[in-house]
Amino acid sequence: MADKTEAEGNGASAADTTTTHEDGLIDFPFKLESQCLLLPHYADCSKVGYVLEGRAVVGVILPGETKERAVLIKKGDVITVPKETYTWWYNDGDTDFSIIYLGDGAAGLTQGLITYFLVAGQAAVYNGLSTDFLAKASGVSQEAAAKLFSSQAGIQIIKPEKKLCVKTHDRDRHGIVLHEDSARFSNHVPCGGHVVSMTKDNLAALEGRFRFSINITKLEPNAMRVPGFFPDIQLVYITRGSGQVQISGVNGATIMDKEVAAGCVFVVQKFYVMAAVAGSEGLEWFSIITSERPIFHPVVGKTSPLSLTNADVLEASLGVTSDLLKLVRAHGNSHDVIVAAPK
């Protein structure tokens, strides 16, 4: 079932609107109502999810593993779901569960879309096989096989008649789930904000299964992420707050200059320079970058060309006086990735 998750009644609902971006990258929000179950399935694309609200129990069988993991995920958790992985999702809470997925649809059956393969319900892969084959494979009678594979009337999402009891284990989170507050900051500025990078070093499932890493940036009110670039494509989803984002491209062309708020999605092309200033409530984003170990290159700040280039060369290149350059370097050398709000 490609790129589609439907509400099915009995209180079950989900929202799944996939948007395709450059290089086959995709984003799609997903919402699951209280006590609803997304049936077991696998997919043809790898994705990572950031929990926006609520909680859910997720069953995970990774490729090559012979035991199911059961993990409880909550707001602020990041979960990795490689392609081929069997999962099911159950909202055992009292409120909606909401998550944003960013993923790689470049190599899917249909480029830029995710295709789900159900292993339960009316759209399950079993329905394309004969009862005779299923009975032989399962070691049961044809009557039992028909009952086993045809009893569920739901398609993708159901609301079970009774609450499901699933025991979760913190140890099962290892390598596949990491809370944003548990990851080491790659950059932190008091009263300015911080940056968290998630790679195969702290999320083992990323190794060999994903062509991207994860970046979470949080800016305090009125703070700034300095202008800079990644030599890789970055897909950005604004999770909280608001602010102004500017992107500069080839020959200094303005690619983007707009106010952003929670729910906004945009792409920063490789080598394009992005800068952001948070509004009065701060600005936060969840993103993926098409590199296993991305390197951020500031174009302003203490490790930028404005600070490191030979002074005489830079004065001549910019056409400015040495006094102005000294002033810029005196102030610019106090920050690198994040600039705290003026006091």
TrEMBL record:
**Can you say what this protein is called?**
(wild Malaysian banana) hypothetical protein
Q: Gene3D superfamilies, per this entry? A: Jelly Rolls
Task: List the PANTHER family.
Answer: OS01G0976200 PROTEIN, OS03G0336100 PROTEIN-RELATED
The Cupin type-1 domain sits at: 2-146, 185-326
Name its species: Musa acuminata subsp. malaccensis (Wild banana)
Which Pfam families did the record assign?
Cupin_1
